[in-house]
Structures are given as C-alpha cells and as structure tokens.
Amino acid sequence: MAPSPCALCTTSRALIIRPKNHQKLCKPCFLTLFETEIHNTITANSIFHPGERIAIGASGGKDSTVLASVLKTLNERYNYGLELLLLSIDEGIKGYRDDSLETVKRNAVQYEMPLSIVGYDQLYGWTMDQVVSQIGKRGNCTYCGVFRRQALDRGAARLGITHVVTGHNADDIAETVMMNLLRGDLPRLSRATSIVTASAASDIKRSKPLKYAYEKEIVLYAHHKGLDYFSTECIYSPEAFRGSARTLIKNLEKVRPSAILDVVRSGEDMAKLVPSEVSSSGAFVANENDIVVTIGGEGEDDQGCGSSNGRASGGEMAVMEKQLRDEEKQDGKKTQDHYETDFTLRGQQHDRHKPAVPAKTAKKIPKQQLQRCGRCGYLSSQSVCKACMLLEGLNKNRPKTEIHVSVEEEDNSPTLTRRMEGLTTAHYPSSNVT
C-alpha cells in the first residue's frame, strides 16, 4: 500500500494519526496545528493581556512541560507580551517529586524562565510522605489537593503574580466532569468546566490553555519536539477516586475517539443549567464576549496531583511513550467489556390509609460569605479554612517527640501562620539553575 500523504500539506508523508479525529498528518503540520489550536483557545477566551506576568504551574510532567514550551513559542510568535515564570510545588514525596523537580530545573534553563519552588514542609510543617504515614493511602489526595491549591496561591502571591496557568488537558476536564456527575455536585461541575477560574479564596486567577488538547496528542507533541519531561506516576495516586473516572473515560475513548471532547462540551452545557442561586455567587462576566469566569471556594479545583502537577495517566500513557520511542506501530486491538447486572425486585408496602405527605418545598441555598481564616488568614467560607482543619487533625495525632511547640503556643500562634511568616520560596534564576 502506498504511503498516505499529509491531509494538510498533501506533499509530505503522513506519520501521525491524530487521536482526536484520526486525521493523518506529517510531523511539521501536526506540530503547527497543535500550537495553532492552543493559540486559538487563548485568543477566543481572552486568557492573557499584554504585559501580564504569568506563573506556569510546573511539575516536570508532560503536560506542564508542553504548556511551558508552547507558551514560550506562542509568546514569541504572536507577541503576547507576557513575562513567563515557572512555579513548582514540592509535596515531599521521595522517589517521585524530588526526581521530577530536577527535570523542572532543567526546563528552567532550556526555556530561560525563572523558577521558584514552594515546599509543603516549609508551609505546613508536613510532607506528603509524613501525611501518608499518618493517615494511610486512602484519602491522601484530599490533603494534597487542598494543600497544593493554597501553596500555588501563596507562592504566586509572594512573587507578585495574580495569574497561574496549569496544564489540565481535555482528559482531565472530562474526568472531573464525570466525577462531579457521579457525586451529584452541580456547583463544582459548573466551576470545573470553566477555562478561566478566579478563586474566592484568593486574588489569583487560574486558566487552562490546554483544556481542549487530548492527553495522547500532548504525548505526541512532547515526543516529536524532543521535550525533556518526567513520566513516572505519583506513588500515591492509584488510590484516588479519579482513577475510576479515568478508566471510564479511556474505555469510552476506545469506542468513540471524540468521547473526551463530547464529555467536556456536555459538561459545559450542563454547567449553564446550574440554578442561579447555586452559581450566581461564583461567576461573573469577564468581558463583552460573555466569557464566563467562575469563582470557586477554596479547593474547588482539588484535582489531587492532576496532570499539570506531574500525574501520568497510568500504564496507557507509559506504553504509548515507549511505543513512540521504539517507533513501533500501535496495535488496534478491540476489547469488549462484559457487564453483568443483577436486578433484584423488591416489593413495596403501601398504606392506603396513610395520609399523603405534602411535597417538600425547595431548600434555599445560602450564599457563601467570605472571611479570613482565624488561624492562617487565608480567605475562606468558614471561620477555619480546609487546610487548617486538616492540619489540626494531623497535629493532634502527631507523636509528641515531633511537636516543636507547646499547646499554649499552638493556640496563640497557629502553625500555618508561623510557617508563612518565615517562609522563603526557593528561587532559581534561569541562568543559575543546574
């Protein structure tokens, strides 16, 4: 069979089949098309404005590495006028985060971007290794998600930055939509589908330029561009609820390649149906084009490690990366899942003499009132923010030999406040990183 020509230039040989629509492209056309689609997403949603300082949430993973590379390319090509920096969070996971941070330091040199690192141990007095040893692997992503969000906000604030971009891709958004549907969480569904979010817990907004980019295409872009990234999965993430949603999304993609974007679009449409009393306190119009920017409470984007934070999607992405390196053809094996459902019919007892129960009136949903956390000063809808509540539980069960302050001192000067007062973010100018 004769080789297929590129669907765009029609002159070069097609080497890549896009996972999104099975379009056959040559390498140069694929790279250019990928970058152009990201540029269109940025301009259509007015994500940036000239002169803005942007912190890229960098983990060393494929998503954040591709995001940094693409933003640098587009900033120079289209003259965005942005000042780009790398901001990394060190959760304190030995054998994972310490290795990935070495990749981030190399990226800082390669892209000529300053790098700042904020650690959980500096900010909270706990590393994730210590948290997991205390509570076990189940539920640890809740702690990491809450801690990470505050760490990103505080790190950006100390750098004088009010805009953080993350590498969440279409697969991540689809997983989040599915998780919120399974949990029946309409308010969070509304916030999770927005490409630009401004947290009610801080003055720092976040955006997701890779929102409509498939994870497999990000891997293809990183491979064909020869980018330096870290691909090991977090050692604690297999226990996360997100893994179940991810499996479901991947199975849907096998049957229907457009399923990922279909779920994302459906989530956007459903978000528009969220009652105003639920979402009115969390959204505002950013510009005349009716681009909705949602305001979420603290932790509204608690996606655990997330792809932008170094989370690989498990075996499938690792296999794909190996296949690309070995230049092997992908096998199109079809799999079938068999589901057995056991329906048990139970009779219902009806009391004809029992008076009918009046229909319940709709419960009025109170609007959140923001206030400063009484312990750390972080904006929260509660008197004590989530991070401080989690820290309180951890500190109560901590061995006395590891407590550095007395109970009286702890009451008068909370741990998080003291940590913040003495926190100095590790700063790595691009010219000095090794």
Structure description:
With 434 residues, the chain is an alpha/beta fold. The protein is 42% helix and 11% strand. The chain has 16 helices and 13 strands. The chain has a 9-stranded mixed β-sheet, sandwiched between helices. Strands 1-2 form a two-stranded antiparallel ribbon. Helix 7 packs antiparallel against helix 8 and helix 9 (215-225) packs parallel to helix 13. The longest helix has 19 residues, at 140-158. The model is unreliable at 280-304, 306-313, 330-353 and 400-415 (pLDDT under 50).
Characteristics of this structure?
434 residues; alpha/beta; nine-stranded mixed sheet
How many DSSP-defined strands?
13
Strand order of the largest sheet: 9-10-7-8-6-3-4-5-13
Q: How large is the radius of gyration?
A: 23 Å
**Shape type:** globular
Distance between the termini: 49 Å
Task: List unreliable stretches of 5+ residues.
Answer: 280-304, 306-313, 330-353, 400-415
- By DSSP (H or I, 4+ residues per run), the number of helices equals 16
Helix content: 40-55%
What is the N-to-C order of secondary-structure elements (H for helix, E for strand)? EEHEHEHEHHHEHHEEHHHHEEHEEHHHE
Structural class: alpha/beta
Q: β content, as a range?
A: 5-15%
Mean pLDDT: 78
Report the biggest beta sheet as strand number plus sense, adding barrel if it closes: 9 strands, mixed
Task: Produce a short descriptive summary.
The chain has 434 residues and is α/β, with parallel strands linked by helices. The protein is built from 16 helices and 13 strands. Strand 4, helix 3 (97-111) and strand 5 (115-119) form a beta-alpha-beta unit.
